[in-house]
């Protein structure tokens, strides 16, 4: 049976009231994934990001608040970007939640995260769901706003709600033509076009990559839980992988010979390191990431190979 036999597709715009009304008719669950993607470009397309990510969510909630509906559960797609740099340890001050890194430091080639009290290098800790929220990009601010609106109105309307804070999601089906969908897509198109991979900073920054199948499992678990409260859940692998290791793994997966170069340049608002802290008492009973990074890379590379060579649009994000 194809997906066409299982779903009713309503083409529309989340900024349009009538489209929401049509789509919500008779629905018991909303899994809210709609958002303008990307991070860096949110710093210069502020109105667009506020409109798509925040005002469209406000429209949805306004309709549910003021009209009859059959909704019984909300699942909101949030992101780790709402944490900003996240949770760190300082030898002097213990657990700290640093602000965005100093431009002056980064211009001098110092990319490390500092304790906000004594300005010494801090050590990354897993960022748990109860960590402080310090978004460093407009994108993160809009996702924080989206999450909090859904949880707040969900509680007011007694609709159980779960916000899933996705870390670096990758896998089959992601865009291979947009330069804003992450290092895996960018590296793939660079490799397939026989171009060197250029990475920001010195290449030692680390991220938590979570495969799309695990993300889907988290969404399904959020729909099926019996708990009637409101919750936030990190969705990641709880494993740090450096950008340099990502690039080398991609080259190996494709059997390519391209080079990797650290540019030592940086983008304002980029997070240095991140790692999801996944609670052992996670409300999503039984959920845990199942696909490790190397397995996921092989699956991703095999899928990319079946889609031909795409135009390398990397230059558009550094121009």
Q: What's the end-to-end separation, in Å?
A: 46 Å
Rg over C-alpha atoms, rounded to the nearest angstrom: 20 Å
The dominant shape is globular
Taken together, the total number of domains comes to 2
CATH fold naming of the largest domain? Rossmann fold
The order of strands across the largest sheet is: 1-2-6-11
Annotated CATH architecture of the largest domain? 3-Layer(aba) Sandwich
Structural class of the helices, strands and pairings? alpha/beta
Overall number of strands: 13
CATH classification, class level of the largest domain: Alpha Beta
H/E series: HEHEEEHEHEEHEEEHEEHEHH
Helical amount among residues, as a percent range? 25-40%
Uncertain runs are none
Continuous helix count: 9
Percent strand equals 5-15%
Largest sheet descriptor: 4 strands, parallel
Properties at a glance:
319 residues; alpha/beta; four-stranded parallel beta sheet; three-stranded antiparallel beta sheet; 9 helices; 33% helix; globular
């Amino acid at each position: 049976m194809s997906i066409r036999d299982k779903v009713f597709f309503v083409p529309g715009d989340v900024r349009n009231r009538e489209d929401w009304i049509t789509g919500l008719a008779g629905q018991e669950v909303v899994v809210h994934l709609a958002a303008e993607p990307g991070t860096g470009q949110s710093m210069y397309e502020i109105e667009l990001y506020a409109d798509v990510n925040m005002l469209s969510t406000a429209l949805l909630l306004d309709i549910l608040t003021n009209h009859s509906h059959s909704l019984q559960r909300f699942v909101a797609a949030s992101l780790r970007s709402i944490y900003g740099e996240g949770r760190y340890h300082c030898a002097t001050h213990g657990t700290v939640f640093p602000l965005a890194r100093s431009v002056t430091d980064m211009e001098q080639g110092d990319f490390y995260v500092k304790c906000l009290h004594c300005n010494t290098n801090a050590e990354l800790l897993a960022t748990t769901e109860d960590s402080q929220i310090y978004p460093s990009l407009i994108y993160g601010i809009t996702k924080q706003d989206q999450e909090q609106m859904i949880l707040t109105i969900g509680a007011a309307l007694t609709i159980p709600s779960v916000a899933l804070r996705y870390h670096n999601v990758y896998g089959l089906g992601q865009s291979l033509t947009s330069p804003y969908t992450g290092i895996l897509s960018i590296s793939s198109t660079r490799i397939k076009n026989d171009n060197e991979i250029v990475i920001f900073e010195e290449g030692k920054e680390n991220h938590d990559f979570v495969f799309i199948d695990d993300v889907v499992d988290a969404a399904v678990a959020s729909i099926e839980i019996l708990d009637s409260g409101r919750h936030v859940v990190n969705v990641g692998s709880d494993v740090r992988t450096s950008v340099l290791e990502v690039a080398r793994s991609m080259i190996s997966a494709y059997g390519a010979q391209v080079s990797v170069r650290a540019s030592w340049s940086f983008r304002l608002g980029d997070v240095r390191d991140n790692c999801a802290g996944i609670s052992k008492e996670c409300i999503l009973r039984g959920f845990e990431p199942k696909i490790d990074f190397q397995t996921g890379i092989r699956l991703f590379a095999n899928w990319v190979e079946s889609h031909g060579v795409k135009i390398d649009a990397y230059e558009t994000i550094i121009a």
